[in-house]
Structure prediction request, 314 residues.
Amino acid sequence: MLLELLRANSPLILDGAMGTELQRRGTDTGLPMWSANALIARPDVVLQIHKDYLNAGADIITTNTFRTTRRTMRRANLPDRSLQLTRTAVELAQRAREECDNNSVLVAGSIAPLEDCYRPDLVPPDNDLRDEHTEIAERLSAAGVDFLLLETMNTIREAYAACEAAKKTGKEVVVSFVCNHCGELLSGESLSDAVKALAPLQPSAFSINCVSPRFLNAALKNLQSAIGPSFGRGLVPTVVGTDNLQSSFSFGIYGNIGVPESRLHGWEFTHDTTPDQYALHARDWHRLGASIIGGCCGTTPEYIAGVAGVLGKL
Prediction:
């Protein structure tokens, strides 16, 4: 389903932030639970945020499952409600789609790094990665998401383990990396090596997320170098350095507004990029070939409406 839409040569609008939008609306986002707190205390706000993004023009809404894991429950010293919270998050996204009467919208099942998005040094051992990502992927698949979105992956090792687990569910998969200002993974590994490592698993698309629009150009250039000269309209016929593997990959981008703040609520808001400025960045990303464009931390429905407007989706 996702691949068919990507190959239709029309940009897909991804929704914007969930955790920071909950924070803006006065909902508890205290760590380590982060956005998962709202599934317990304010599911109505989660539902409304999904609907607001749909009304802003989103073609894809993302489940609030960034932190609905057993590991997070343990860190929070709470009883294990991870399965229930995952199901609740998927049901809220599906309900938003139904209530907005737009069956063409896709629901993406969010899968995050098991530990900290910005701390590649904390990535767990391989056995833990395999077992825990398998459980997360299977739960999201069983709950009925349309595809799996591996977000903010900061090492090749975890991205590979998560993608391998996700592909075994039979669902389509998008793998998104978080990069530094030099355009490399936060681990220091290159995007080129990341693409080469994961290409044999055949994800539907690669992506970059949670990077300021001001610093995304470096990552884009590195991604272009990684997947060859035919970098246009999001489809690339040859992946360099994968033993002559012939394939096509779309790519997506969703940047952030603000900076991570790990002590209390997880995010510090800034005004470095306005919705109008972000929309202009989105237009440039589409011209460079991006097939999936949305927003990450700090973005709001206003940002997504701007993206949809400039790309002719509203």
User: Anything to note?
Assistant: The CA atoms of residues 20 and 175 lie 22 Å apart. The longest helix spans residues 82-99. The chain is about 40% helix and 15% strand. The mean pLDDT is 90.
